[in-house]
Amino acid sequence: GRAAPALASAGPGGSGPGPAGLLELLLRERWVRVAAELSGEALSLTSEPPPEPAEAGGLGISIKGGRENRMPVLISRIFPGLAAERCGALRLGDAILAVNGTDLRDATHDQAVQALKRAGREVLLEVKFMREVTPYIKKPSLVSDLPWDGAAPQSPSLSGSEDSGSPKHYNGTKDRKVIPLKMCFAARNLSMPDLENRLIELHSPDSRNTLILRCKDTATAHSWFTAIHANIMALLPQVLAELNAMLGANNATGSSKEVKHIAWLAEQVYGGRQQWRPILMAMTEKDLLLYDCMPWTRDAWASPCHRSDLWPLPSLQSSKPQLPQPTAPARALLE
């Protein structure tokens, strides 16, 4: 371990909301504030942790442990933009041995909190890194740890975010997740009840993960949903081109293999109550295909969960409706 003093000046700080606005993300069964930003191909979510002045004492840290827990007083969270993060000398897992000369080695949790709150604007912390307890410090609900897979193999740069286990998280790097929108399914009131009409669901292309966003009101939810859905739809021509290239259907115009349309639908599932689930529909010249998830490979494309033949429809010329000839009295009336 190390023993080093850290000088932190408690003062104003913090980061503002993202340029697109604040939403709430359902993460590990609780709502977390995020700054959401929508680009052409991705939805970026950056956590906006609420301040905890009673815990941080103005320094921008949270602590765990204490004598009653048979643990030293440990730094469990460092808030971006505040004094502790700006000084650059503290990290998660540091045990606070003293505050401005006051020994905290045998302090309770509450005693440590009070000592930090009374420390004033200039604080001298004596700390020691406790590597053995670091795994037991639960990280806050990190947006970057949000499970999300199923991005197209052609888009590795948008397949996720940095490794959440890297030291970057301990150094105050913004907690961020980038969600590629290609072949996601944006829906409302599909898998989660939405009595207030302000939720948005985003289902991953592999159908394994669902992201739930909560807006401040119905109008905001409608605006966000419309924008996300429009961006997903704008990517469909690119998806069709990639699919047809993979299937080798681009060499012959009008090939029966050529994918004409692809879109997500909601399929009703009959259980104890009415339920719905995402289902992907694709159409070629001759087939209607249903998939449980986006088929990015030839093998996946060849294994739909349902296939139906499409019968060719008569042309408009041959099916032009013929008006019945009026009877003699009717013809007279028409004349």
Q: Would you spell out the secondary-structure blueprint of this structure?
A:
Elements lengths: L2 E7 L12 E6 L2 E9 L3 E6 L5 H4 L4 E6 L4 E8 L4 H5 L6 E6 L2 E2 L5 H9 L4 E8 L46 E5 L4 E3 L11 E5 L6 E5 L3 H17 L1 H12 L13 E10 L3 E10 L3 E5 L6 H4 L4 E4 L18 H7 L1
Antiparallel strand pairs: 1-9, 2-3, 2-13, 3-4, 4-10, 5-6, 7-8, 7-9, 11-12, 12-13, 14-15, 15-16, 16-17
Give a verbal description of the structure:
- This protein is an alpha+beta fold and about 325 residues long.
- The chain contains seven helices and 17 strands.
- A seven-stranded antiparallel beta sheet has the order 10-4-3-2-13-12-11, with helices on one face. Strands 1-9-7-8 form a four-stranded antiparallel beta sheet.
- β3 and β4 form a beta hairpin.
Compact summary:
The chain is 17% helix and 31% strand. It is α+β, with helices and mostly antiparallel strands and 335 residues long.
Number of strands: 17
**Which oligomeric state applies?**
single chain
Q: What gap, in angstroms, lies between the N and C termini?
A: 105 Å
Mean pLDDT value: 78
- The structure class reads alpha+beta
Low-confidence stretches: 1-19, 51-56, 155-172, 326-335
Question: Could you spell the SSE succession in H and E letters?
Answer: EEEEHEEHEEHEEEEEHHEEEHEH
Helix fraction by DSSP (H/I, runs of at least 4) = 10-25%
Share of β-strand residues: 25-35%
Tally of contiguous helical segments: 7
Question: What would you report as the Rg, rounded to the nearest angstrom?
Answer: 29 Å
Biggest β-sheet, characterized? 7 strands, antiparallel
* Sequence of strands across the biggest β-sheet: 10-4-3-2-13-12-11
Q: Tell me, what's the shape?
A: elongated
